[in-house]
Amino acid sequence: MKKVSKVSRILIGAVTLCIAFCLALPAIFGLKAFATGVDMNEILGNTEEHNEALASDAPIIAFGADLSADQRATVLSEMGLTEADLAGYKVLTITNQMEHQYLDAYLDASVIGTKALSCVKITPAEAGHGVMVTTKNITYCTTGMYRNALLTAGVQDADILVVGPSPISGTAGLIGAIKAYETMSGETVSEETLDTAMNELIATGEIAEEISGASGQLSEEDAEKVEQLIAFVKAKVAAGELETDEDVKKAIAEGEEKFGIKLGDDEIAKIVGIMQKIRALGLDPGMLVSQAEDLYNKFGTDFVNHMTAEEIGKQVAGSAVKNFFSNIGESIKNFFSGIFGG
Fold this sequence. Notes:
single chain, 17 helices, globular, 5-stranded mixed sheet, alpha/beta
């Protein structure tokens, strides 16, 4: 038999080790990743070190933890991105356990399900830009529902895209958006604040479904009316006008008339409960301007021509709640007085 040289033995050993390592990869990284075909970049590239190495204003993506490889590819395509593009993004993962943590109080566990699929991209914007939300493959939550809840959570100046890998309700998308905003801003959103925002999102949808009638389907028009009514009442709470539950109920009645909506006792009670939480949070009065944006657009005022959003924000930030209306300028005061009946 021909002798094998020392060099050949070394090469054979190296090849054997490589084969053994490749066969062991599923055990090292988990069978699930290989079974679903998830790109190895997800396992090796999107680490805390990777996120920390990026600039503080880098955009952020929060992926649902249970996406298959095909679903992940679909989400990235909807976002206009590729796996390679993720090198410039901070990447987070939202788990089904997190969804249950924040949603179990408001939805049946069977509705939440066992897989985290909602994904969010959040891009920081300049001061005064506001919170802009768009959705793709989201069938239940409207952009207004997300926006109202995100403002309650304290989110500011960001473009937010919520995406499903296929048509999904999107209720868990709020968690990803808020967690991504925490990374963007470096500030922690309290459990109480996140709970209040989640309560607002779910209640808005439920109330809209109720007023949609026997169809049981969420009407976009009804959802918009409920969004506007809740934003209207919340703005009054933030301005310090509503100190009691009775005050809130009167504001709800006023909103019903303004927005052409009729609520039952259960729906009114839900809104009162949300406002109790919002009152306890002590929202920044600057939120009042962002929340009122949709209202003054609805009423067709030329208010935005009098002062830029950035100037408004500076005025509000420098004013105590009680002096808000008097310090922000006469035209603004007159507008809000017309809306809020002040």
